[in-house]
Fold this protein.
Amino acid sequence: MDKLVVGGGVPLRGDVRISGAKNAALPLMCASLLSPDPLVLSNMPHLQDVTTMLRLLAQMGVVASLDDRAGLELCAASVKEPFAPYDLVKTMRASILVLGPLLARFGEAKVSLPGGCAIGTRPVDLHIKGLQAMGAEIHVEQGYISAKAKRLKGARILMDLVTVTGTENLMMAACLADGATVLENAAREPEVIDLANCLIAMGARISGAGTDVIKIEGVRSMFGTAHRIMPDRIETGTFLVAAAATGGQVRLIETDAGLLDAVIEKLRDAGANINARRGEIQISMKGKLRSVNIRTAPYPAFPTDMQAQFMALNAVADGTAIVVETIFENRFMHALEMQRLGAEIEITGNTAVVRGVSRLQGAMVMATDLRASASLVVAGLVADGETTVDRIYHLDRGYECIEEKLSQLGAHIRRAH
Ligand code: EPZ
């Protein structure tokens, strides 16, 4: 099992290019199921999750190829098998995003329940409830969701919770439904907007993406298009935190500061000097890091996917921070690993109290989920001595070539087997 060995104490300096967003790429790949014509996606990130999604779509009969400009072309002219098996779905929950498109275009789908994951039970009940509201006949048995619908019907769907992939699944399903669908309490994440923009280019009639009410007027068929995937705002935030925590000076390119206002505001509160202009963000530290309180919530509030990284930053900041995780019920496992590095963190329910310490000591730690892995790498970059992060397959799911990118910024980091 691969490990990352990280040497601490080096301020990061230089330029880093941000990759396409994982959480935009995955739903966009599923959107290819909605049309018989090719969908060409550029700025694709090279990630394990993208490879898994490719395998899943290819298994159904989607033809994938790389065009001459490294764009990924996906063509779902015909799908022999609207089936997503457990052995693939269990490794990547986002596989659930094939359910809506398959049902909308082919009238049937059999998709494995994703099952739980380290950060929480993560049910998909709102995906199922929304599709049933659109007339789908759905049975859940032996760990599979079996769904059928002659043609989905537009419906008004009020979601009990803000769900990102739930909003994306239902928005895709509604594109080919008969009549109008209104999604209320919809997720406002930028990845939802990126998906909506691509669907509109494919012929869908969508308004309100980015607000909590999205309207979709069903059409009979959709066509192909070419779409450039938005920058990854969580990778952006992760590199910004690493630069601040190590007291470095870094320029991030091919990204967009407008995607992470809440994160940038917290970094400025922590003492970082941040300048943003078209496509770039420059960050440097002036003086000591200050502790910052964090409360996660749906976009545009502070993203849960940045909570672990800010815990690493608070672990070595001046003061005491209160971190409240409101989205997932078990997203503090990185804290237990950080305590092995000397971090002073007390957890009560969904609240962590982080008392900043002057130094962390390098040690062996274990990654438990994608963003926890990233936070342990950040902690290793500031700890004295060497930190070995084990089980970094979690990291490879969502960060493209992280050790190469960090090495280019001067970090002492290497992959060990
Ligand atoms: C998306 O997951 C992201 N993944 C997650 O990123 C991210 O943490 C999450 O949104 C929140 O922003 C992708 O986009 C592929 P949710 P998703 O449905 O859609 C509950 C990463 O690190 N819920 O918005 O699965 C759920 O349990 C990953 O890149 C239901 O109860 O999250 C959670 O408490 C991790 N029933 C809350 O809603 C449902 O049917 C929000 O979950 C759906 C969700």
